[in-house]
Design goal:
This is Class Ib ribonucleoside-diphosphate reductase assembly flavoprotein NrdI. This protein has one domain: Rossmann fold (3-Layer(aba) Sandwich), CATH 3.40.50.360. Helices cover 39% and strands 21% of the residues. The chain has helices at 11-19, 48-58, 84-93, 107-125, and strands at residues 2-5, 23-25, 39-44, 67-74, 97-102. The protein contains 4 helices and 5 strands, in the order βαββαβαβα. The radius of gyration is 13 Å and the shape is globular. It has a 5-stranded parallel sheet, with helices on both faces. The structure holds flavin mononucleotide (FMN). Flavin mononucleotide binds next to α1 and β4.
Length: 126
């Protein structure tokens, strides 16, 4: 399972480093990369103008068909806007919203996400 993500301030990047998994950080330069393996997207929460490279990636080639779900990274102080970017992606592309965490994630968040990944991998193999 690959982790596809973007990061503006660096929180999501630090979270992904803690996962110690194969990953790809999206930027303006590589947003249209074609992928041919299952992935989970981690989306930090910002206005759509700042996160549209995530949409570009999902809409490239058959990329969406490999998406196993999306995880939101945000800040609970935004209340009802907490992790809306990941929620919108889940709705717009009909993929599961797997988990949400704040900032660079706690040890427990790392553990939970690893469990979710293992569960999806096991489901895919039966
Ligand atoms: C300008 C700005 C707007 C943000 N808006 C939201 C928001 O609407 N909802 C939310 O949950 N978090 C919001 N956040 C928090 C970020 O999504 C959060 O800090 C995240 O960890 C940033 O990820 P990054 O460091 O990888 O870019 C905002 C942060 C900034 C700087």
């Amino acid at each position: 399972m690959k982790i596809i993500y973007m990061s503006i301030i660096g929180n999501t990047r630090r979270f992904v480093e803690k996962l110690e998994m194969d990953s790809l950080e999206l930027s303006e330069v590589n947003a249209f990369t074609e992928i041919h393996e299952n992935f989970i997207m981690i989306a930090p929460t910002y206005a759509i103008e700042m996160t549209d490279i995530l949409n570009d990636f999902l809409e490239t080639d058959d990329n969406l068909s490999y998406c196993q779900g999306v995880i939101g990274a945000g800040n609970r102080n935004f209340n009802e806007l907490y992790c809306f970017t990941a929620e919108d992606i889940a709705l717009d592309y009909d993929v599961p919203l797997l988990y949400r965490f704040e900032f660079q994630g706690s040890d427990n968040d790392v553990k939970k996400v690893k469990e979710i990944v293992t569960e999806i991998e096991n489901t895919n193999y039966v």
